[in-house]
Write a structure and sequence with these properties.
The protein is an alpha/beta fold and 281 residues long. It contains 10 helices and 8 strands. The chain has an 8-stranded mixed beta sheet with strand order 2-1-3-4-6-5-8-7, sandwiched between helices. It binds iron/sulfur cluster.
Length: 281
């Protein structure tokens, strides 16, 4: 596969310069390198500027409601765990309204890849403070400055049991592509939090700001949880790369009913629905 094989006829409607363009490019390049088959892949989105990816990637796609990307992904995996399920959404969707699902999917080690386009603002609704906005950040909803400390998604993922945790940057496409490939190849829950400049509404966390703050994790052992916690806590400079990785059975591995074959391939012609309902009532 080539990245352009995943193109659709839809043209992205993002603002010129939006970080989502770099992420879309990295995702398509990663899909091509990982040789993802269109008919065996589903992109699940929620609601927000970052939730249009299924319209621009030629695989199966599902637009869920706000914050519910992961429950939809879990349903897909339980129905047919042969599918590659890739979740893409924003920080408001995943770390705000979807926070509970985020934690539970990680502690279960659901075998999906979750790419969070983290622009530290609500872009689609024209610029309000999001769960990852910095303290003091002035927006329409916090004209006197945000009084809340931000969510730290990497630290939260470590505490919640995610088995692959990485962070990338929309302005470093080849590096991000390689992180996404690692996430796609990981068996279990993989989080790739991506710093994504919102050029229209976030005039603080710009490409220049990130270029000044970011550095690549090089001498870091992703098996070392304590070191990962320390790296996740850094704020003066912000590391990108793989923070943590471990091998563990997935949620799907633990379900006996799908151990031989996916639910969708099982023969239920002999099942009498009325008897089943009676038994459960
Ligand atoms: Fe991108 Fe921000 Fe425009 Fe949304 S509002 S498309 S996040 S630049």
């Amino acid at each position: 596969m080539k990245p352009e094989d995943y193109n659709t006829q839809n043209k992205p409607v993002w603002c010129p310069g939006c970080g989502n363009f770099g992420i879309l490019m990295a995702v398509k390049q990663a899909f091509a390198k990982a040789d993802l088959k269109k008919k065996e892949t589903v992109v699940v989105n929620g609601i927000g500027c970052s939730d249009k990816y299924h319209q621009y990637i030629d695989t199966y796609g599902f637009e869920s409601i706000h914050g519910r990307i992961l429950p939809v992904a879990m349903g897909l995996r339980l129905a047919n765990h042969k599918l590659k399920v890739v979740c893409i959404g924003g920080d408001g969707d995943g770390y705000g309204i979807g926070m509970c699902h985020f934690i539970h999917a990680m502690r279960r080690n659901l075998d999906v890849t979750y790419i969070v386009c983290n622009n530290q603002i609500y872009g689609l609704t024209t610029g309000q403070t999001s769960p990852t906005s910095e303290k003091g950040f002035e927006t329409k909803s916090t004209p006197n400055g945000n009084i809340e400390p931000p969510v730290n998604p990497i630290a939260l993922a470590l505490a919640s049991g995610a088995t692959f945790i990485a962070r990338g940057f929309a302005g470093e496409v080849p590096y991000l592509r390689d992180l996404i490939i690692e996430g796609l190849n990981h068996k279990g829950f993989s989080l790739i939090d991506v710093f994504q400049p919102c050029v229209t509404f976030n005039h603080k966390n710009t490409y220049e700001w990130f270029n000044d703050k970011l550095y690549k994790l090089e001498d870091h052992d992703p098996k070392d949880r304590d070191a990962a916690v320390a790296k996740a806590s850094e704020t003066d400079k912000l590391p990108i790369g793989i923070f943590y990785r471990e091998e563990k059975p997935t949620y799907e591995d633990e379900i006996e009913q799908i151990s031989r074959k996916p639910l969708v391939e099982q023969d239920i012609s002999g099942v009498k629905m009325d008897d089943l309902l009676d038994e459960l009532s």
